[in-house]
Amino acid sequence: MGMVRTALFNWAFARNLGGTFVFRIEDTDSARDSEESYDALLDSLRWLGLTWDEGPEVGGAYGPYRQSQRLEIYADVAARLLDGGFAYRCYCTAEELDAQRELAKKENRAPGYEGTCRDLTADQVVAFESEGRTSVVRFRMPDRDCTWVDLVRGEVTFGHEHVPDFVMVRGNGEPLYTLVNPVDDAMMRITHVLRGEDLLSSTPRQIALYEALAAIGVSDGTTPQFGHLPYVMGEGNRKLSKRDPESSLLMYREEGFLPEALLNYLALLGWSMGDDQEFFSLDQMAAAFKIDRVSANPARFDLKKCTSINGDWIRTLSVDDLISRIVPRLEASNFVSNPPTLEQQAILKAAVPLIQERLENLKQAVPMLGFLLVVPGEFVIDEADAKAVLGEDADETLNAAVAVLGALPDWNTDAIHEALKSALVEGLGIKPKLAFGPIRVAITGRRISPPLFESMEILGREVSLTRLSGALSVR
């Protein structure tokens, strides 16, 4: 969800200014990245409706847009940085680096690489390599403070002592984020980057690297403007983690959240449209998006608020649109065929308006509609609900309902309601809640359902009477 929020803000920023939204796949970590994760990323953005102007499947003037397909470019740039004196090979072992960190900790100094290999002689290099040591490539940070004007946070300064020389290429030759992102930014002519606050400390490194890339002719000297978005906090005022259930985009898709609702809610996490407006579309957000309305303060993820907005979005859909989104879930549960039959379509057209106001997500629609679509002989009453309301004392109610409904001349919502009210509430003196409870469970299989009498009209007289009679034998 954090990735989606970041993509959304970049998308809206680009759309508002008439810019180009670039989707780049950062997949140089061979141990973690896979074709499956790549496909999932593309599928997620497509599902959300965040269309990109340059990137995978779309192309563009600065491709390829998968970093795993640009490894020769990074190797060439690293070699040119080494030749230009902007980088050097570091032969320090993991144990030596750990010792440096421990010493800095004891001396209350900022931890970081101490430049041990900055100025190695040719003889020292030969000696290290004869020992069988491998080397990483480090960037030589300039000995000066770094200041920039952040689009969200204003002026930010990092003292040079807090930004030591950093690794750009691993010992096995694999390039790291610290190299590939600035190289891609420079070569793809990126002008603006909105990203998470956790990458704030990377910015001084990248600014220095942009200068070096200009010096060796890789870029035209343009340094992107950065905006660092606030953290999203979860339960207990701690940063929302990828391991938190509410952080998983897949969970929301499975639960039946609408992409429009998710994006609407995520937009509120650190940005405001103004005038207390909290309900808006993607197009409305793009038209109104101004970077100066992004807050630097952490935003708190509230699942209840997100769910509420999702319910609001469900209520704005046309009945046909809502049916089209529910049908795949009903198909997966074997309640309708693919495509639905004419009879099934008619039932959905009549029933979906009954539940639209009650839905918080699309997943809830399956049990709410299933009892109307289940084939005869497969209707099942929930065991716990049956135990709660279908005891022996319910037999009188059920028998009276069967008798009065069997003789009913007109089968419609109002006639069903009036007949049951007359027979049970007035005739037997049963309170409405107690009178209609057994009827509801007998008809729908659950104590919580769409409106009862409308549901009975949709089911028809024969099915309704069959279910009421069948409930007499449930214990």
UniProtKB/TrEMBL annotation:
Q: Which principal EC class is assigned to this enzyme? A: ligase
Q: What is its EC number?
A: 6.1.1.17
Question: Is Chaperone one of the keywords UniProt gives this record?
Answer: no
The Aminoacyl-tRNA synthetase class I anticodon-binding domain sits at 336-471
Query: Where does the record place the Glutamyl/glutaminyl-tRNA synthetase class Ib catalytic domain?
Result: 2-305
The record's GO CC annotations read: cytosol
Instruction: Provide the GO biological process annotations.
Output: glutamyl-tRNA aminoacylation
Key words of the record? Aminoacyl-tRNA synthetase, ATP-binding, Cytoplasm, Ligase, Nucleotide-binding, Protein biosynthesis
- Single GO term (MF): ATP binding
Q: Fetch the CDD domains from UniProt.
A: GluRS_core
Q: Does the keyword Cytoplasm apply?
A: yes
Alphabetized InterPro entries for the sequence: aa-tRNA-synth_I_cd-bd, aa-tRNA-synth_I_codon-bd_sub2, aa_tRNA-synth_I_cd-bd_sf, Glu-tRNA-ligase_bac/mito, Glu-tRNA-synth_I_codon-bd_sub1, Glu/Gln-tRNA-synth, Glu/Gln-tRNA-synth_Ib_cat-dom, GluQ/Sye
Similarity field:
Belongs to the class-I aminoacyl-tRNA synthetase family. Glutamate--tRNA ligase type 1 subfamily.
Q: Which NCBIfam families match?
A: gltX_bact (TIGR00464)
Q: Write the protein's name.
A: glutamate--tRNA ligase
Q: Which organism is it from?
A: freshwater metagenome
